[in-house]
Amino acid sequence: MPAWLDAVIEAILSDSRGKTVWVAYSGGLDSHVLLHGLATANKLSNVRLKAVHINHQLQADAKKWGQHCQATAQELAVELALIDVTITARDKRGTEAAARQARYAALANVLSAGDMMLTAHHQQDQAETILLQLLRGAGPKGLAAMPVLMPLGLGQLYRPLLAVSQQELRRYAAYHHLSWINDPSNTDTHFDRNYLRKILWPLISERWPSAEKTLSRSARHCADSDNLLQQLAQQDILAIAADKVGQGILPIAGLLSLPAVRARNVLRYMIARQGRELPSTARLDAILKHVCRAREDKQPEITWPGGIIRRYRQQLFCLDNQPTYPFISECLTAPKSLDLSSGQHIDWALCTKVGISMQQFQQGIRIRSRRHGDRIQLIGRKHHHQLKRLWQTWSVPPWMRDEIPLIVQGETILAVVGYGWSCHCLLAEGETGYQVKVTGVTPPID
């Protein structure tokens, strides 16, 4: 058994904890070697080993490749999951990026809590990633390239071959007479990685034979640097009392009290913590200059593919960059669970004192988004108040206001969900009513 395979097996045995170990099996040489090595290892006889093949449906022979993978898995007595993904919305960086995003989403979906997904990325893959990131102007996080271990769905993604050369994998395949699929798209130099692999890498390796190892070493150094930057960001977050950073909220005054380089670092940390793609340095500078320093009555925003940064009342908010649309439910004459077109789910719970009475249900109610000129008479108030003014009183950011459901009867607003009830919703002594429970709505800002 080669030393690299023995090291992979020992790592799995120390961390599998009785959970399923999956191999992402494309049918290519690298993943076939990994699957074969694990499936035939006596030490793993008590480990639940499975494989998964993702069909991107981008090649004419894609279905045949799935059949090949199924046959190989049967020979190895390994259960194989075949999953089709459809690449519909093209990533602006191209088909390659869109396929990768769909692939990892599919891999994440098969994992149960504690499961481990293994991919066969090797040392040259890592070196190529570093060079591509360098050409894109990446910082330490990008130049750290692919981590050996990272969260994926409910489990973990493990890349055990990052220190193994492809030559070693080829020697293993030749010794065991393995057969594998050659994806013709891997020779298409229209794709950046293929251009690097086919055109540039032979020249690099001829001039610098140890480039794979030294670039991988650089990736480890960058990973250490990124770890230190994250620790510094955590210290700065404590210093500026950014206690809502986990919600994607930062205090503007605190952020501006930091030197620009550390403020950018805090922004990167917050955005990465939300699992978003990082914006460019130019956009980070724009956030600090144009959003943080804007007048209070202005609503500037900075967008990038990973999200949008907005400000409200001396706070920065990092959000999904998705439009909102008006919504209105069917007429309800009894408590009923329903899904709104806004993506929110409605349920009802019995209550006393304040809620929607059965009489109000029988007369018909709807749930809708706000409209121009909306007014409500809240419990304890003598007069109606414009909802526009109440949003400000409740400190509801402008972009959230379209998401908040209103319970209405005709033109009368009975409730602003999560914020206030109309005086018409006071229940009589001993009367039972219903309060609404909404999931998928942004919670109130403290």
Descriptive terms for the model:
446 residues, alpha+beta, Rossmann fold, Chorismate Mutase Domain, subunit A, 3 domains, four-stranded antiparallel β-sheet, 14 helices, 20 strands, 38% helix
Assign the CATH topology of the largest domain: Rossmann fold
Give Rg in angstroms: 28 Å
Number of E-type strands? 20
Number of separate structural domains: 3
List the helices and strands and how they pair.
Layout: H1 3-15, E1 21-24, H2 29-39, E2 49-55, H3 62-75, E3 79-84, H4 95-110, E4 116-118, H5 123-135, H6 140-143, E5 149-152, E6 155-158, H7 166-175, H8 192-207, H9 211-239, E7 249-251, H10 252-256, H11 260-273, H12 281-291, E8 301-304, E9 307-312, E10 315-319, E11 338-339, E12 345-351, E13 356-357, H13 358-363, E14 366-368, E15 375-376, E16 385-386, H14 387-393, E17 406-409, E18 412-416, E19 420-421, E20 433-439
Parallel strand pairs: 1-2, 1-4, 2-3, 4-6
Antiparallel strand pairs: 5-6, 7-10, 8-9, 9-10, 11-12, 12-20, 13-20, 14-17, 15-16, 17-18, 18-19
Helix pairs in contact: 2-7, 5-9, 9-11, 11-12
